[in-house]
Amino acid sequence: MKKEDRPGIEKALDELVEDITVDANGEDEQLWAFRQAFEDDIPVPCEATVIGEPVQVKKFDYDGNERRGLTATCRRADGTKHAVAASEVVMPLSTQGGRYLAAYRKWMGIAPFPPGTRGKARRQTAAALHPDGTVELVVLSVRQKVARCRLLNDDRTLTFRASRLRDVAPGEIAVVRPAKQWTYAGNPYLSGAIESTRLDAKALALVPLRLDERGIWNPAEHYWGEEGEPIEEWARPIIARGPRPEFEMEQVLPGLDSDDPFSDPIGESNDRKDSGDRAGAYKILMDLCQADLRCLDAHAHLGNLVFDGRPEDAIRHYEAGFRIGELSFGEGFDGVLPWGWIDNRPLLRCMHGFGLCLWRLGRFEEAGRIFDRMLWLNPSDNQGVRLLVDQVRAKDSWQDCR
User: Fold this and answer.
1) Domain boundary among 108, 128, 150
2) 130: burial class by Cβ within 10 Å (0-12, 13-18, 19+)?
3) Range of the domain at 87
4) Which of 81, 249, 267, 336 could form a disulfide with 217 if both were Cys (CB 3.0 to 4.6 A apart)?
């Protein structure tokens, strides 16, 4: 904020404090007045930060404890909830919540604007600059105008603004030429031009999803069709390979409440999409990716959102999920990931969407390899790729085979 802007804003905050507390006598009544103003004029849930950490504010409250003052119930990206002093909550001053919180802090006698300098953001980004003046950012989530990112090989996060954000997806690495760095409300921001993007799951330094052993898969006990019918070509090498260990992949789903059987962020996103609220569905999925890029189902459903109209965008989401899941395999993995173990489904959904996009975009050989891999991982083929492999190998166009 420019120094010359502060007098006018300080005066506006004084007027807002007076408007809120005009009929309230004493500290307790004034706190109740602030609580009522927050309830009436700040729509919740809403996005904010607490000590630089992104949160979702669920509720503002006051329990009559004047020393504690107003509190805010916040939900972290991992789904956990906690109560903090409302004075610790930061929202952009351009929002109603940001103005009310600044007025409340001013009424309390503390700085209405949390400390932060442009120099801090500039130093943070400068430390990660390459000799050519670019910086590499891991994309965590994408909004309409901003992307939440972290510096490559670093845990520090920032908000990135650019004009081509449709060209990036969570899990990708963007090479950015910075134009401006600043800090607002204690949070670092960066703007600049995206020079290139790439997908390199190994460079993300993620902990691979765990593979839990689930016994031995035996092709002799598998159903391969009616007795007397010939074995299909794709199945013969799988049968010849013999028994193999089967696994269930760890599923990461931030925000899932194990005590609430109806708590399912993916299901909520699908419900919003089906009701026509695609923006709401998109936001839930992006929040999941921001909380943990290993949420493979979020990548799969982000791909589903745009598959019909923009396969060139959908493929980026599907492949990101597949490559992140693939980190668990290591070298020479030859196990089975049956669809019947439900936590394997996010990876298989990513692979299915990835293969369909490759086919749709005319990348037949790559699509064939993905579908073959799926059949080896899940020979029961619940997704029906065995019905597609011949068409892909024949290079039949996806449009003609729909």
Assistant:
1) 108
2) exposed
3) 3-108
4) 336
Beta strands in 199-239 (DSSP E): 211-217
Residues 185 and 67 in one domain: no
Please, what sign has the CA dihedral across residues 345, 347, 348, 350?
Answer: positive
Is residue 276 one of the residues assigned to a domain? no
Place of tokens 């130093």: 123
pLDDT reported for residue 117: 35
pTM, entire model: 0.70
pLDDT digits (tens, 9 = 90+) for 200-225: 999 999 999 999 999 999 999 888 87
Residues 167 and 304 reside in one and the same domain: no
The verdict on whether omega for the bond into residue 45 sits within 30 degrees of 0, i.e. cis, is yes
8 Å CB contact between 150 and 137:
yes
Q: 156 and 188: one domain?
A: yes
Q: Is 53 left (phi over 0), alpha (psi -120 to 50) or beta?
A: beta
Structure tokens at 231: 């074995």
Tokens linked to 332: 């020479």
- Helix (H), strand (E) at residue 85: strand 81-85
Nearest to 139 by CA among 116, 166, 118: 166
Q: Are residue 246 and residue 351 in the same domain, yes or no?
A: yes
Q: Judge if 299 and 361 occupy the same domain.
A: yes
| C-alpha–C-alpha distance, residues 345 and 250, integer Å | 11
Contact 33, 21 (CB under 8 A): yes
280, part of any domain:
no
Is residue 309 located within the same domain as residue 225? yes
Task: Give the ranges where 141-264 is alpha helix by DSSP (H).
Answer: 236-241
CATH code where residue 311 lies: 1.25.40.10
pLDDT for position 188: 85
Q: Is the domain of 94 the same as that of 13? A: yes
Query: Distance (Å, rounded) from C-alpha 33 to C-alpha 42?
Result: 14
Q: Are residues 241 and 380 in the same domain?
A: yes
Q: Does 206 map to a domain?
A: no
Q: Give the contacts of 98 (CB within 8 A, at least 6 positions apart).
A: 90, 91, 92, 185
Q: For residue range 18-67, list pLDDT tens digits in order.
A: 889 988 888 999 999 999 999 988 888 888 888 767 888 999 999 988 88
Q: For the chain, how are helix, strand and coil distributed in percent, rounded to 5?
A: 45, 20, 35
